[in-house]
Amino acid sequence: MAGFFLHQGATVLCLHGGQAQPTSPFLRVKVSGQPVVTQPPPYTIGACTLPPNAGGPCVTAMWTSAATRVRAGSLPVLLQDSQATCAPTGTGLQITVTQVRVKGT
């Protein structure tokens, strides 16, 4: 895996258009003036459009992959190509916008 660092201001969406936000960004390391995000703290998801009778809406997401060589406070940093699984739907997240200055593997 290699990609740009994920930070608090990145645009992350569930596959149904819900806005995903980090619950615990790592405040001591910043890129583009915003804290980086690490694994394992979950993301919360708001405004998911998947109706309850279709198994939704997405409420939280847990990251299943992150950087293997870069850490912040001993936790792996999330990258633009990191993968996550939403609960209760089991679908993924899309990272649509993030900073493009700092990359990791």
Order of helices and strands: EEEEEEEEEEEE
The N- to C-terminal Cα distance equals 5 Å
CATH topology: Tumour Suppressor Smad4
Alpha carbon gyration radius: 13 Å
Which regions contain 5 or more consecutive residues with pLDDT less than 50? none
The percentage of residues in β strands lies in 35-45%
Level of helix content?
A: under 10%
CATH class: Mainly Beta
Question: Can you characterise this structure?
Answer:
- The protein has 105 residues and is mostly beta strands.
- It has one domain: Tumour Suppressor Smad4, CATH 2.60.200.
- Helix content is 0%, strand content 40%.
- It contains no helices and twelve strands.
- It has a six-stranded antiparallel β-sheet, with no helix packed on it.
- Strand 2 and strand 3 form a beta hairpin.
- The protein is elongated.
